[in-house]
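Minutes, structural biology subgroup

Action item carried over from last meeting: produce the structure token record for G2E3 ligase (Certhia familiaris). EB confirmed the sequence was re-checked against the source entry. Recorded below for completeness.
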Amino acid sequence: QHCYICRQSGATIMCREEDCDRWFHLPCAKEGGCVTHYIPHYSSYCHEHRPEQDVQVTPEPGTQCLICMELVDDRKTFRTMVCPACKRAWFHRDCIQGQAMCAGILCLQCPLCRDIREFLSQMFILGIRVPFR
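Output recorded by EB:
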């Protein structure tokens, strides 16, 4: 199979959407805006079928990522996320992924409101890998 992102052969991951025929390599997934669920039953979605946050808010101008303190995009995107509980904490996907890898499942929480339940379940759905350690 050919990767729809890099066009090279050897793609082993297929979009889980029923009628989608896109295949990709795991390393290409992030670059192509794909989402992989790292919870049993592992599944992956191309950029067109990936789950999106259903929170209807936009950041105020000049809003910073609470982890790296750099500006976030002016709207919710694949790279920019918001806490589903407080709807005020904005962060970059890469920043929260780094936080998740350090914190693990028992300690990952919203950097602002400290919500665990809603925050953690949304991170799993949006493809943030959270180790069970």
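Discussion: Strands lie at 13-14, 23-24, 35-37, 43-45, 80-82, 90-92.
Next step: EB to file the record with the rest of the batch.
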